[in-house]
């Protein structure tokens, strides 16, 4: 660790200019961490917060806020061009980015800056799998100077699924504003929700109503729990999202309207954590679930699916994710439950059994709470800031650049194709044609193929061999279509794919 009282070291740090790159300051775990990081680092560095959209700001920040979208519109340039311009104009020494595409843009726009990227989730667990993001992580993450994972599970995922060397990855946990959480938890529950509860104990789930969070499984398992353990226990799910109507229909289907309540997103869910019998995390994948850290800050029993990643680290100090559990596990600070698809259909009852266990093991639940509060007493935001500073200071800047790799590929290629013959594909052609011999444009099978105005042919994907070692394909579509295009190219076993960024 760095020396805490070394004023000369702090003096050197003040000279550094740090860019923190994130899409917005609206609701989102990455945005929240970026805002807190800007506040912490502003005490030692000159911080610039570079956002794509500055129109709405939920999270507070410190430093100079720069909206890249405005620069794009004013100068009719791409996001990457705007980011590169700001880095150069502001003399950025270190660039820290959050979320996959912004990590990619940060890497692509390397100038004289060190590149630190942060991964917040186990990307390989997304369903359907994001092929475009997969390709970015496999092909480009290795060009960063260092990768910050928010948990050991995310580090494991980057290494095992994307082949990234572990020595490149450094784990730093999320900030937790414990005093604020405790203060806010003292507020009361809304009157209408208190009236619905009517004095009953309740389990609590907090999260977007999204397939990732698996609230459908939770509803099914709560219904099973209720069948075999008839009592007045209820379930409150706090969150908004695309599955709201589907989940409401499930509640009606299981006749659970009197026992399960969906509550839209709340700015202050902490009173509900304090009043709950148990907090349940039902997610299929996470990074480091903030809701578990918040529950442990307040001190509540926890049931968590053993997803990749985070719960087993927080509940049992276990960072080895190579062997998933096959049955419920009572840990130091809560209960882990297997991530079993059979719980969706009711063939197994891991979650339902865990709910029953919580209600029948009050003494053990008290031990959970005591262990949680002890754990959080050592969970120190100051130490987390010191880890970020140490990383910024100790990281060595690499000399390897993406353009050099891509230039070698293109210079040695026998065939160069641009996938996409629209505006973006043509723009790439105009930019590269003077330097490289573009063979053809590629379009999806079934699309019309004709000669381009410069007599460059347009071919269907099935008519070309993208799997050849000496063939390079340049992605010439925007992010909206990129995932489907990358999927098609991978089905044709594309060998060399270049993504230039928007």
Number of strands: 19
Name the structural class.
alpha/beta
Number of helices: 21
Mean pLDDT across all amino acids? 90
Within CATH, the superfamily of the largest domain carries the name: Glycogen Phosphorylase B
- Mind describing the biggest β-sheet? 7 strands, parallel
CATH class of the largest domain: Alpha Beta
Question: How far apart, in Å, are the first and last alpha carbons?
Answer: 38 Å
The residue ranges in which pLDDT falls below 50 over 5 or more consecutive positions are 1-13
The helix content, as a percent range, equals 40-55%
Provide key terms for this protein.
Rossmann fold; seven-stranded mixed β-sheet; 502 residues; 19 strands; seven-stranded parallel β-sheet
What is the gist of this entry?
The chain is of the alpha/beta class and 502 residues long.
Which helices and strands occur, and which strands form pairs?
Layout lengths: L6 H8 L2 E6 L6 H13 L4 E6 L12 E4 H8 L3 H11 L4 E5 L1 H9 L5 E6 L11 H10 L5 E4 L2 H11 L6 E3 L6 H7 L6 H7 L4 E5 L8 H14 L5 E5 L5 H10 L6 E4 L6 H6 L2 E4 L8 H9 L3 E4 L5 H6 L12 E2 L4 E3 L4 H4 L4 H11 L1 H16 L3 H14 L7 H11 L2 E5 L3 H10 L7 E4 L14 E3 L10 E5 L3 H13 L4 E3 L4
Helix pairs in contact: 3-4, 5-6, 6-21, 10-16, 13-17
What would you say this structure looks like, in words?
This protein is an alpha/beta fold and 502 residues long. The protein contains 21 helices and 19 strands. The protein has helices at residues 7-14, 29-41, 68-75, 79-89, 100-108, 131-140, 152-162, 178-184, 191-197, 215-228, 244-253, 270-275, 290-298, 311-316, 342-345, 350-360, 362-377, 381-394, 402-412, 423-432, 479-491; strands at residues 17-22, 46-51, 64-67, 94-98, 114-119, 146-149, 169-171, 202-206, 234-238, 260-263, 278-281, 302-305, 329-330, 335-337, 415-419, 440-443, 458-460, 471-475, 496-498. The strands form three sheets. A seven-stranded parallel beta sheet has the order 3-2-1-4-5-6-7, with helices on both faces. Helix 5 packs parallel to helix 6 (131-140), helix 6 (131-140) crosses helix 21 (479-491) and helix 10 crosses helix 16 (350-360). The longest helix has 16 residues, at 362-377.
